[in-house]
């Protein structure tokens, strides 16, 4: 990992903001993509020298006021702004990764969704527990517990996720957000290093410095048993277990997607995979 993470983040993000987006005059003689350092400095109300030192890692302790100004200059959304705060050391460090154990009450809640896929992930997006429909949905993957690794290393993922490119982009943005929370998590660092070494696509997406939560998404699947179906996902943070999120996928009532999801839900665990995280 770069020792100048804030500078790398600022550089990547300014390269994607056009002068027109920033309200600056159009120029015909630009040698850089996006904004120049001097333009970011003007927009943020800081000196060009100070901003250069931030990007170069010679200044590592900007104030919250400076981060707010840079966020406005670079059109950062809320997630990206908070990510910049974490990289600048302005958010208290989380000394340990989130809990890996899923509470029994949460498992019961997932099992109470007989016509929805539900699973719990940590910030690395490892699947910690799932209900039976989710286990059936993810069963084409060789290693459904480690979703990020499967997404980029398992050929079956490109078939299962019909819009693989979109899923990959959202996943890397969520992983980048997780890295801001847990830069001292050795498992997360090892996962990122492994994927950067083994996947050119992951490396390209990682270096874009996109940051975002999983939030609400539509995902389309090509499942070998149930066929093609689109589910609407909602993501809920688990309040009692920082770092854990509950993902729930449902189909539009009365739709073909709902019929195909019902077919998937009819598959019993012993016919497919054991629900992930289920007691053995």
Structure report:
This protein is α+β, with helices and mostly antiparallel strands and 280 residues long. It has 2 domains: 5-87, lambda repressor-like DNA-binding domains (434 Repressor (Amino-terminal Domain)); 104-265, Beta-Lactamase, CATH 3.30.450.180. It has 13 helices and 5 strands. The protein has helices at residues 5-14, 37-44, 48-56, 64-73, 78-87, 104-111, 132-138, 147-153, 155-160, 164-181, 186-198, 200-207, 256-265; strands spanning 117-121, 127-130, 217-223, 227-237, 245-250. A hairpin with a 3-residue loop joins β3 (217-223) and β4 (227-237). Pfam families: HTH_31 (PF13560), MLTR_LBD (PF17765). InterPro entries: Cro/C1-type_HTH (IPR001387), Lambda_DNA-bd_dom_sf (IPR010982), MLTR_LBD (IPR041413).
Topology of helices and strands:
Elements: H1 5-14, H2 37-44, H3 48-56, H4 64-73, H5 78-87, H6 104-111, E1 117-121, E2 127-130, H7 132-138, H8 147-153, H9 155-160, H10 164-181, H11 186-198, H12 200-207, E3 217-223, E4 227-237, E5 245-250, H13 256-265
Organism: Streptomyces xanthochromogenes
Protein name: Transcriptional regulator
InterPro entries: Cro/C1-type_HTH, Lambda_DNA-bd_dom_sf, MLTR_LBD
Kindly report the average pLDDT value.
89
Q: Within the CATH hierarchy, at the fold level, what is the topology of the largest domain?
A: Beta-Lactamase
- CATH class of the largest domain reads Alpha Beta
**How many helix segments?**
13
Pfam families: HTH_31, MLTR_LBD
Domain HTH cro/C1-type: 34-81
Protein name: Transcriptional regulator
